[in-house]
Amino acid sequence: MTGKEQEGSSDLIEAPDHLPEPVADVWREIVASNDLAGKVDRAALETFCTLMARLREARDRIEEEGMVVTDPRGRVIPHPALAVERATAEQIRAWGDRFAPLVKPVRKRGYIADATAQTIAEAKHLEGPRFAGPVAALKTLAWMVDEAQRDSMEALQKAMTTTVPQYLKACAELQVTPASVPSGVGVAAPAPTEGEEPAEGEKSGVASVSDLQARARARRSG
After folding, report:
1. Residues 116 and 89 in one domain
2. Residue 68, SS3?
3. Which of 68, 94, 120 is the last residue before a domain boundary?
4. What's the pLDDT at 184?
5. What pLDDT, on the 0 to 100 scale, is given for residue 90?
6. Do residues 27 and 46 lie in contact, with contact meaning Cβ atoms separated by under 8 Å?
């Protein structure tokens, strides 16, 4: 572990005690908006938060005192905070989007995605971090099927030869019952496991959703 990075639980990304409150406020905002966890370059984050707090302070002073002030000789001059604001803003831009708020895509709800999420929620054997990746992939495939249905018949037909077989295969691997896909369309069946007889309809290389649902239930009970 380097001096810059520390790894561990979320308490490692609490604002350090030595930070002034305005800087600590920025720290907490950035951590919350980025879901920061695990390895965090604390020194870099502290520097960035200090710059943001300085920029806010400069803008607050300009807002309160105006764009111009009177110097000790009585001359009207630009507020010194304007120079601080410009310089600090330039430094912040140099950081790019390293600590910019994380924008999470919002997915439209759909029947396949909702049904799959419900099935996963009821699958006790998928609880825990071990299956987090495969479960996320399955949910993505379900969403892609819904998106194809929303798009066009052409997109749906294409999904039937690509996304849907992947979705059904992922369901079989995770031993969950797949949601019903549009009827009347055959999809390539995953190869049966060793010692397993092909289900009716699979002998020709095509499986119905009910066949795969039955197989998933059999695997779970076994």
Report:
1. no
2. strand
3. 94
4. 42
5. 94
6. yes
Cβ-contact 55, 85 below 8 angstroms = yes
pLDDT of residue 66: 94
Burial letters for 107-144: b for 16+ Cβ neighbours within 10 Å, e otherwise?
Answer: eeebebbebbbebbeebeebeeeeeeeebeebbbbbbb
Q: How many CA atoms lie within 13 A of 62 on its CB side?
A: 17
Q: Which residue range is the domain that position 179 belongs to?
A: 111-221
d(CA 220, CA 124): 11
Q: Are residues 83 and 145 in the same domain?
A: no
**Position 89 in a domain:** yes
Residue 100 lies in a domain: no
Pair 123, 176: CB distance under 8 Å: yes
> Do 217 and 124 share a structural domain?
yes
Sign of CA dihedral 207, 208, 211, 215: positive
Same domain, 85 and 122: no
Tokens of 141: 């495939």
Per-run averaged pLDDT (10 residues), the chain, 222 residues: 40 80 92 69 91 95 94 93 95 85 69 89 85 89 90 89 92 84 44 48 45 54 59
pLDDT value for 185? 42
